[in-house]
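Hello again, I could really use a second opinion on something today. I've been staring at a protein lately and its backbone has me curious. Please have a think about how the structure follows from the sequence. I owe you a coffee for this, so here goes:
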Amino acid sequence: MSRAEAKRAEAKRALVPYESLANALGADRIARELQAAGHEVVRTGGFGLAWLEPMIVIDGEAFGPVQDLDALDTVALGPLDELPALARQQRLVFDRCGHTDPFEYDPSWLLEQLEREPRQIIEEIKASGLRGRGGAGFPAHIKWQTVYDAVCKTGAPQKYIVVNADEGDSGTFADRLIMEGDPFRLIEGMLLSGHATGADKGLVYLRSEYPLAAEIFARAIDLARTLGLLEKFDIELFIGAGAYICGEETSLLESLEGKRGEIRVKPPVPAVAGLFGQPTLVHNVITLCAVPGILQIGGKAYADIGVGASTGSMTFQLAGNIKRGGLYELPFGLSLRELIEDWGGGTRTGNPFGAVQVGGPLGAYLFENDLDTPLSYEEMAKLGAGIGHGGLVVFDDTVDLVQQAHFAFAFCEHESCGKCTPCRIGSVRGKEAVAALASGEYTESRLEVIEDLCEVMEQTSLCQMGGMTPIPVRSALGWAFSAQGGNRSGIGPK
């Protein structure tokens, strides 16, 4: 009997991922075949190691990518707890994901935490240095304190926790993975933040492209209600309609109120007057999912992870032309090179590295001479870049950076809410100007026009949709027309 046959004969319990990517690659079929062979199959979340999906675990031994149960020997990875791609991570958000049935939940720890004084929880968040994981990296405790104070001073009739799960940035999938694999981690974060700030209603704004996440999270809400967790704090799931702009917090609030998703002028900020004019704590999924881990180890211990003011772990997501794409939860401070070459294995094509866009479609393009930069909010800012939601899209040396600049303007044109002229019109004129560059109509004056458009959009747009579009445009064109870039596009001065 082969090792694979012996494993199948002896196995009592097999963990098989039930998440969108693994299912698309055959996890459902593998689960059925294991069940037919008489094994106990537990559908879990995914571990986030995309290049190994479907990855299954049989009696603690990992295998992946699995397509044929009769050929397990060829995809044996060894003991799960010794797998370097997982063992070397520092998982505070995704510690349960992949290991357990997402619907087997013991609320004991959560109930104990909900007995704590609200101010104690806010102080732990402050001590942790937690910053928003959705974009700008704003200190979380300031939002919490503002909502708490607004409640105490005004006696607001209703307070809200709003979760931004409209995960639209390119190369990002952390929200989906946690909502499909460990929905109670988000429910914990919502209940704890609601208790701390005085809110008693929570709404999750989920992108429509995540039907499985919607199904799993809705079931988790029902289970939480059965467990008596939602007697003082209710949770509602709201499905968006596919507008990228609704990832911006005020557009999201407009959409939740049944209006067209458009930017609100600030102030007031949502923490003071948010949903229906009431104090509202708006956070990204991963920000709230970090809260339970902070309370488990303590705010000070969390602050000791990472570097400087970039504390804790970040759920980095590697996508694009990358050999080992997936989610890696690691402390802030490792370099771009470590993440792309060590963790990601370099480009999938095997060609030399060309560029990486960090932080979604409005993020900067970074290049070989940037790769030794530590991944922290402060160090990335020195490059004119950000971390955003932690998504990185990698390109090899065949990337056409003029085309990428054109895409940035085109994306802004398509996704703009249209409320402000700089974003609505500037993106169209910018797209036209870059298209002319791409067709070979290079002139210095055309580049000056593009720079003027970028300056107007950056300085006068109502929100980051228009205000950040110049970031990828400038970084892409700056490199394409520089001596370092080697004129990769084949246009412009020789």
About this structure: Confidence is low (pLDDT under 50) at residues 486-494. Residues 255 and 416 are 15 Å apart (CA to CA).
